Amino acid sequence: MTTFTGPVTTARIFKTWWPLAASWILMALEGPALNIIVARLADPTIHLAAYGSLVFPLALLIEAPIIMLLAASTALCKDWDAYRKIRRFMHVSSAVLTGLHALVVFTPLYGLLVRGLIGAPEEIIAPGRIGLIVMIPWTWAIAYRRFNQGVLIRFGHSLTVGIGTAVRLVLDVVALAIGFALQSVPGTTVATAAIIAGVVGEAVYAGWRIRPVLRNELPKTSGEDGRLTYRAFYRFYVPLSLTTLIFLGARPVLSAAVSRMPNALDSLAVLPIVTSLTFLLRSVGVAYSEVVIAHLETPGSARPLRRFSLGLAAAVTLGLLLVAATPLARFWFGTVTGLSETLVGLARSGLWFALLLPGVSTLQSWLRGIVLHSRRTRSITESTLVYFVLLAAVLWFGIESARHSGIYVGLLAMTAGELAGAGWLIWRSHKTRRALHLRDTA
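-> structure tokens emitted (442 positions)
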């Protein structure tokens, strides 16, 4: 990208990475903040399970086709023509997916989905439906925000992305404080109202901050050969969209499997608590894909990018180990989150099954950035299929054996799937990594 000049050093990588990491950390704080409030309202186990294991996974599944707009706009919005085409795709796809969301929550499809396919406990079905109704603006707000953030990142405004996430978190906290003060609103409704207030506010902020970039920095033409065609865009984007559809589709599958294992309701309540903690550490690695995309075109960048990813992976793994192996786990799950003693014990022991997730996520972000740079996005889809197959196999074994609590089997399945997906990306990106090494050596 023409906005970056000079050699790629660790300091330069850090300068690009830290605002994005801060943005993801702030976003990751949203989950614990929701859990802390819901755990202190009426019927916490029911509403923690309804929001974390039913509403949020289904909302993520519906938005899956547009979630990679961040990577697409970062990689492809090189001029006004490309920007307009991707923006048109964003609005049309958002309208279709929002209609699908409404169709699910306002028709018998909801009962068919949550009772027939997921097999959710009856206690969480009614609050889950109300939560999904509140979440209807979710997909369009996320699409608009991610599309504009990709352009901001491409033109060197990654700090603006972090500020937008801070805006989102502030609005979350305000909505949660109102819900907590009222004490009469169900926990699932409080959580979903807070998350919608946050994402809509962040989308509005991103739309405001993109205006001077479009006016002053986005060129009319990029100077590169050829314009972005819809065919080229879909060839780039469809594999990524399928990837997120498969990956986020695993969340409802996970909930469905845990619902059929021993200790189902407690496991469904604790699972999002543990995954929100691990996501705090995973978030700094998730932010790394866009850093790799932004810098990999520069000769000499492959080696420092790899070294930074390995150091980051080691740091986040040690961080989670520190929590799991010390009284910090009891402090977090008990004192901070406010779980009952029974759920604290379940969460602490379950955390060990998720120990490798932050480090593996960081390495996957590095590998995905390499693949996105080469535009051979099919490899990412393949790795996600590998993840899904292994996750499903472990979950099936857990259902058949019916011996272990769902929280343990679910987290083990996630870890096994992530490791397998990372292994596949290592293999499939070998030629690209080799070519980058030869380029940098030359």
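Residues 197 and 268 are 25 Å apart (CA to CA).
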